[in-house]
Design goal:
The complex is a heterodimer of chains A (about 200) and B (about 200).
Chain A (H helix, E strand, L loop, with lengths): L6 H12 L4 H31 L7 H39 L12 H4 L5 H26 L5 H27 L6 H13 L5
Helix pairs in contact in A: 2-3, 3-5
Chain B lengths: L2 H12 L5 H30 L8 H39 L12 H4 L5 H25 L6 H28 L15 H10 L1
Helix pairs in contact in B: 2-3, 3-5, 5-6
The chains are: A mainly alpha (about 200), B mainly alpha (about 200).
């Protein structure tokens, strides 16, 4: 307590500052949601594989084609689910590190580079945005795989849709790479190099 | 929060990263399932084409041929998806669990273990989706009936659009150097030995 502060002011500020512990709720639930998404995606995988298991027995070509289109859609969906789960996990760690305290023990671990990579609030938001974009694209993909196309006009419209999708990819990619903070194997190495140059004292 | 409780809590939530192992297993299992699907497809395509020489009617042959080309492309596409799923499984393991040290002795590690970051995973999934969409377009186009010149014009428009979407994805890949190839002099192979060597040279 500083000399210039009155007692009530100190108490008020102190109790206000304690509010930040409410962020722990976000951490715990974001972690739990991540675990649930891992579970959901694992169950999806199980059913997709069950669906595909007797693919060889399907003698009718059209049935097979339909099954295949569906299976590919679901496989992509599964991968998408896991990506979402990982982002939720990164979220939980990110919120904890930003608003509660640095995770000192885990930061020495080799996968810390990729799991503890949230630098600020904007980073959280843009990650959420990118995940949403990805899920939308997967949704588009799924619908388009089971859609019926009857004439050339529809085919051309489909082509327009493909270009729009790749355009949105292009923009997301350019935005992702511009900030230059991509964590790569190369940056792992650079970090190692830097730490060798000046041996850090713990 | 007292320090030892903080440490315990942090190492407890850090254990949540093991849930990524689910994603690794499921992605691997999905990869095996896709290899199986594509192999079954290949079997049926080959079986159907064996009688191709005995078809004497030219129109019949033309339609069988168009179908066969579509199916062959589909088979290749299925294998591509399977390989990407495999790369995914390895990538998730390497990013979030630990480096696959034994794999670095193999020549193939450069291409199998080429995931550098979460964004890399996402953009790879996106590229695979685009490729499958393009194959879908191709398949539809091959079996479509074209009646007049306008249909033909529209078809060429569709081809142009697909071409430009390929251009866009290629442009991103090249511009960012995300997937540099062997001929690229800047390409570094991140084997442990090379890493050690480089570190020693400093």
């Amino acid at each position: 307590m500083k000399q210039t502060q009155s007692k009530p002011e100190y108490l008020f500020e102190h109790s206000l500052w304690q509010l930040r512990w409410s962020v722990l709720i976000a951490v715990i639930f974001s972690g739990l949601t991540a675990l649930t998404m891992f579970y959901v995606a694992a169950v999806d995988t199980f059913y997709v594989i069950g669906m595909i298991a007797d693919y060889a027995q399907e003698a009718n070509m059209l049935d097979r084609k339909e099954l295949r289109g569906e299976a590919i859609g679901h496989v992509v969906e599964v991968i998408d689910g896991f990506l979402l789960a990982i982002v939720l996990l990164i979220f939980a760690y990110g919120i904890y590190e930003l608003y509660i305290s640095r995770m000192d023990g885990p930061e020495k671990h080799e996968s810390a580079e990729h799991l503890l990579q949230i630098k600020n609030l904007d980073d959280l938001k843009s990650r959420l945005g990118k995940v949403i974009l990805m899920i939308l694209i997967v949704k588009f993909f799924e619908i388009s795989m089971t859609m019926e196309y009857n004439d050339v006009k529809e085919l051309t419209i489909f082509a327009v849709a493909i270009v729009s999708i790749s355009l949105s990819f292009f923009m997301a990619e350019v935005a992702a790479r511009k900030d230059g903070h991509l964590k790569t194997r190369k940056s792992d190495f650079e970090k190692q190099k830097a730490s060798l140059k000046q041996p850090h004292t713990d | 929060m007292n320090k030892s409780f903080e440490n315990k809590f942090e190492s407890f939530i850090w254990q949540a990263r093991w849930s990524v192992l689910t994603a690794v297993f499921c992605s691997g299992a999905a990869a095996l399932a896709m290899f199986y699907v594509a192999a079954v497809d290949a079997y049926y395509v080959i079986e159907r084409l064996l009688g191709y020489a005995s078809l004497t009617d030219i129109y019949e042959r033309m339609s069988v041929r168009a179908n066969a080309i579509g199916n062959v492309v589909e088979v290749v596409d299925g294998f591509l998806l399977a390989i990407v799923l495999l790369i995914f499984a390895f990538g998730l393991y390497e990013l979030y669990i630990s480096k696959l040290d034994t794999a670095y002795d193999e020549e193939a590690s450069e291409h199998m273990l080429s995931i550098d970051s979460l964004d890399d995973l996402k953009s790879r999934l996106g590229k695979v989706i685009l490729m499958i969409l393009i194959v879908k377009f191709f398949e539809l186009a091959i079996s479509m009936e074209f009646e007049d010149v306008y249909d033909l014009l529209m078809f060429s428009g569709g081809i142009l659009l697909v071409g430009s979407s390929l251009f866009l994805t290629e442009f991103v890949t090249k511009a960012t150097g995300a997937h540099a190839v062997k001929s690229d002099p800047d390409r570094e192979i991140w084997t442990p030995e090379k890493r050690e060597q480089k570190l020693e040279n400093i």
